[in-house]
Design brief:
Blueprint lengths: L7 E7 L6 E7 L7 E11 L3 E6 L7 E9 L2 E9 L3 H9 L5 H12 L4
Antiparallel strand pairs: 1-2, 2-3, 3-4, 4-5, 5-6
Length: 114
């Protein structure tokens, strides 16, 4: 979650294996109720590939993340497939805007920052 969104992680349940499930619950000062994001892992190949299905609505994406080593560095490829054009457009207008910030946060974390 991008820090700039101002959300706080309330709970995190992750069974990261093929067939396992995840559930992340966030709170935000502007909303009365917490927001849950959940789904299942379709494929987990350690150090290579993770595929999960976002199931909080019928318009959830299938997300695939791959990891490839190149000259001592890791190339991360992020791909999302949406069930409809409308779902894709909603994602592009919303949460997808935060992806660059999220990857910058990941870079900072992996570099040993806070």
């Amino acid at each position: 979650m991008p820090k700039s969104v101002g959300m706080t992680l309330v709970s995190c349940e992750m069974d990261i294996r093929t067939g396992g499930a995840y559930r992340l619950v966030f709170s935000h000062p502007a909303f009365d109720q917490p927001m849950a994001f959940f789904g299942t892992y379709r494929e987990v190949t350690p150090h290579k590939r993770i595929v999960w299905m976002n199931e909080e609505s019928d318009e959830g994406a299938v997300t695939t993340v791959t990891f490839e080593e190149h000259d001592g560095r890791t190339l991360v490829t992020f791909h999302e497939r949406y069930p409809t054009t409308a779902a894709l457009e909603d994602a592009l207008a919303g949460s997808a805007e935060g992806l660059p910030e999220q990857f910058a946060q990941l870079d900072e974390l992996l570099a040993g920052g806070s």
